[in-house]
Amino acid sequence: NAGVTQTPKFRVLKTGQSMTLLCAQDMNHEYMYWYRQDPGMGLRLIHYSVGEGTTAKGEVPDGYNVSRLKKQNFLLGLESAAPSQTSVYFCASSYGGSGKLFFGSGTQLSVL
Amino acid sequence: QQQVKQSPQSLIVQKGGIPIINCAYENTAFDYFPWYQQFPGKGPALLIAIRPDVSEKKEGRFTISFNKSAKQFSLHIMDSQPGDSATYFCAASGDTGFQKLVFGTGTRLLVSP
Q1: Helices (H), chain B
Q2: If you measure CA to CA, which chain A residue comes closest to B31?
Q3: For residue A54, which residues of chain B lie inside 8 Å, CB to CB?
Q4: pLDDT tens digits for range B33-64
């Protein structure tokens, strides 16, 4: 049972480049989330989804887009990367609206 | 806007000590208070959680104390071990249709042998 899988684990981008972070879960969870983790700032919610085909903005959505075309996948896109988006990104999922989130192992992104 | 304030930022205790991590919240609509544990290179994992209808919850060596009137809650780790060295996050959420968690800024705990 893989749980929540994120790819890639590491990535370096130049300012202005685009990329997509992939998240897949095999627990049949309805809810999925994208967080960023920065030193001294905890985990901040970027976007989330309460079901296939739905997405919503979180606390820090600017500069990011998401898509949930399949229930098991949640994609996070950066259209034009900026140095301020250097961070560790975590995907998570949960059963229904429970507060018990299952996190992936993270993607470390550096934007130069 | 920091809705959940966590302290201290870092903590060092000796093996067997009882580290205490504190969190305070402002939103009285919050009704679910989990703690997450994160080891280096890993994602956070749910450790223990409490709802405001009880003042204390224990799971093994981990205890949450909750003070509703003060809007504060804390994590105590009894008989701490070097394997407990990790970053701990408190969080809170309310009944808004689903549990959208707000996290504290984290506490890096080091338990020395």
Answers
A1: none
A2: A99
A3: none
A4: 999 999 999 999 999 999 989 999 999 999 99
